[in-house]
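This part of the workshop introduces the protein records we will be handling. Getting from the letters to the tokens is the skill we practise here. An example says more than a description, so a record of this kind follows:
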Amino acid sequence: MARSDKISPVRKQEFYSDFLINFDKNPITGVLAKVTNEDSIKQSLKNLVLTNRTERFYDPLIGSKIQSLLFEPLDLFTADILKDEITNTVKNYEPRVTIHYIEVTPADLFKATSENGYNISIVFSTINIPQETRLDFFLSRVR
């Protein structure tokens, strides 16, 4: 084993990179911090799903109608419609992703929590990175 192998850290290859959503700076270098590979794709997927159609000025077709579906009854039928909408949006606007499955479950109404919404889990793999990645988030309407 060479001496340089012991000293130099192993760097992962960057296939995809993007800025952080809140435009934080790297505390050491002072430049904009970035996310890479799976984290970049996760950020992109979440932005795409949460963007309403006609919200982007120069490309009004990008986005989904998920925000309007949150005012429908909290049941499995609406969860299935949400799943189809997420699938269509990702297939149409995110070519770097292969979706394995999407799970949309309504929050339990009988628990003591007052949160009405859906737990969304997207399992996907990217084109250059074959391992599966999971994105989980809670989708609720803004009052």
Observations:
- The beta strands are 17-19, 34-36, 97-106, 117-126, 133-140.
- The chain has a mean pLDDT of 80.
- The domain at 14-20+30-140 is CATH 3.10.450.40 (Nuclear Transport Factor 2; Chain: A,).
